[in-house]
Amino acid sequence: MATPLSLIDQAVIITLRGLQGERDVSNVFLVAETGIEPHTLIRILKARREVTIGELKLLATALGTTPAAIVATADARVGSLA
Predict the structure, then answer these.
(1) Residues 9-38 pLDDT 10s
(2) Which of 8, 16, 33, 41 counts the most CB atoms within 10 A of its CB?
(3) 39 domain residue, yes or no
(4) CA angle 59, 60, 63 (to 5 degrees)
(5) Per the structure, how many domains does the chain have?
(6) 2 in a structural domain
């Protein structure tokens, strides 16, 4: 059984999914833009595995933002839970 993701990892994934929805970007687009394997992308977006720093950089670029902006948003989400 997989180890549960940390709160910050979960918040990063929620942020990624939110950006994907806001920008109306499909998984097919993200796979094509990032080179991330489709099954890997799905596992990331379903919070079944952590996103690596390299993958985060690729996804952020494809979504028109930066890894720092994604992490800052995720950190704010986690902070609001405290």
Answers:
(1) 999 999 999 999 999 999 999 999 999 999
(2) 16
(3) yes
(4) 85
(5) 1
(6) no
